[in-house]
Structures are given as C-alpha cells and as structure tokens.
Write a structure and sequence with these properties.
five-stranded mixed sheet, eight-stranded mixed sheet, binds 1,6-di-O-phosphono-alpha-D-fructofuranose, 28% helix, alpha+beta, D-Maltodextrin-Binding Protein, domain 2, Fructose-1,6-Bisphosphatase, Chain A, domain 1, 2 domains, 335 residues
Amino acid sequence: MGQFPLTLSRFIGQNQAVSPGTAGEFSSLLSQIGLVGKLIAQDLRHAGLIDILGTTGEINVQGETVKKLDEIANETFLKVFHQSELVCALASEEMEKPALFPENWPQAQYMVLFDPLDGSSNTDCNMPLGTIFSVVKSERKDRMPTADNLVRKGTEQVAAGYLLYGSSTMLVYTVGQGVHGFTLEPSIGEYLLSHEQIQIPVRGKVYGVNEGNYHKWPGGTQQYIDSLKVKDTATGRPYSVRYSGCLVADVHRILIGGGIYLYPGELDKPEGKLRLLYEANPLAWVVEQAGGKASTGTSRILDVEAKQLHQRVPLIIGSPDDVQDAEEFIQGRRM
Ligand code: AFP
C-alpha cells in the first residue's frame, strides 16, 4: 500500500530526535506560520474581486473596510502571533517599529521578522506572491527584549523560510537541518511534504534580475550579466531570463532548478533595494542549507553586520558556481 505523504506537524514530530526539546516549539511556530499562509492565500484568491466586491471601493460585502492586501497580510500575522504563547515581538516590512508583546513574556522566547506580502504589485495581474519569515530567539531569559534586540545577524536565525502563493501554496523552511518544502492540499487544509531535503543544482541555466536597471550598475555587474548571454555550449550559455517581480517566486525557481537571482547594488544606491533582516537573511539561510550561496557580491549575506531594522543589502543568490562567477566579476577578478 502506498504511503500518505507526511503532514507538516508529523514531519517536525518525526525529526524531534534531531533537535530534542525544540521540536514541539518549532512545530507550533511553523504551524502558525502555515496558518498565516492559509489565511493570506484565502485573501489572495479574492484579490481580483476586491474592487468589485467593495461597494464604494472602501467597504466590502461584509461591511468591512477594504484595505490593501499587504496591510491585510500584515494584520493577519499580527493577529495570529499575538495570540501565540511563543512569540514576544514581531517586526515587518510594513511597520516602522516592531510590535512588542510583553504580555506574552517570559514564556514566549521567539521573535519573528517578516515581509507579509512580497511582490505585492503582482496582486494586480494574478501573478505569484510570497511571504518571507525569519525567527530569532531572545538573547536573555531574564528581560523582555527591546526593539533593538530584533536587529540580529543572519547566523543567529533559528528558523527561516517562505510561503509561495503560486499555482499552489507552498511552505518552505529550514531550522538548520536542510530545507523542506510542503504543498498545501486545499481539500484537507494540510501542508503535505512534497520536497524533502531540497538540493540546489551546483550550476543552473537561468538568471533573474531587473535588467531595466542595467545602466545603473557598476561595470563588474554589467560584465557578469553580459557573460551569461555569450554563446558557449560547453557552459550551457546563453542563460535564460526568468523574472517575476516576486523575490520568493524567483528564488524558489532557482532553489529547485538552479541558476542565480540578483538584486545588485547600484552606482547611486550601493546598498541595493532588498531588506537584510526579513528578505535577504531568511532566503540566504534557506539557499545555503540547500547547498547554494548568498552574497552581497563581496561577502556572505549571513555575515553582514545588522545595524538597523530596515537595512538594505545587495543580494546575489543561487547555485554556488553561478554566485561565485558573479562575485568574481563584481570584485574585478574576472572580466
Ligand atoms: P514589494 O515586497 O514591496 O512588493 O517588493 C518586491 C521586491 O522587494 C521583490 O519581491 C522583487 O524581487 C523586487 O522588489 C522587484 O523590484 P523591481 O520592481 O525593482 O525589479
């Protein structure tokens, strides 16, 4: 008899022996993130109808205020985790300052940083969206963390991952023992293990970058992208471009099939566009755990010193050989 795929909670439970004492906590934490994903996915299914269902454009058929979907996604996170006894602080792309829950302290030791709706302009055209999360643990057991205590280096993450709202909804995460992907089976409302121990190919044939910014890039970045277009059958070039405008979807494609995603630094904006704490760090850890690399172009993302909650960082992420090539061009070691 064939076996039914493992559910998220059973999978975490079975791996309890690997991380004794933490599996119960991670199981609750990840199942809450899974719940957030189900609620956001449910809202996104109505995304194209919000204007139609909202009688004035501001009030929907249930008499509720129609808000932008990224605000709705942010509120969903806040509501689910405020009730949680595991989380004492939340920080998000949508909030200037973190939300602190001293009422959950001291039993709640975890803090979650997240981008509630990544690629939100894709809501207008029925394209993929994502949610990115990073979990850190409070440093001290005797004092409720302050806002500054959320600003931590990527190597301090204890769990990280993303939800992808595509043709199906997926939850992909790591707790430092590889990367696993679960697909939501909507008929039973369960995440089922669909991608165990994901391994990124050492090299790919796809690159994802907003090439409209080409003339804003330093020479090394331009030369690297040019090199991907040169015909060279030995290396599989030219590469194909795949860019959706949703970081989660673009990185997920590369995690599964190999290649490279770049949001590089620009001449007038060397820090790039993406945020370190709730975009680059969690995706960097996921990709590293799958055997890939994540770099600023000059250093490992997870080693970047975290100074501010909404700090930006250039991101070059994907198959190890592709990221290494990009680093060599950016650092001027290759032309
Ligand atoms: P939002 O999360 O604000 O929608 O931004 C999307 C994003 O951060 C990331 O998902 C994309 O990869 C990137 O921006 C796209 O940016 P460009 O439009 O500049 O290419």
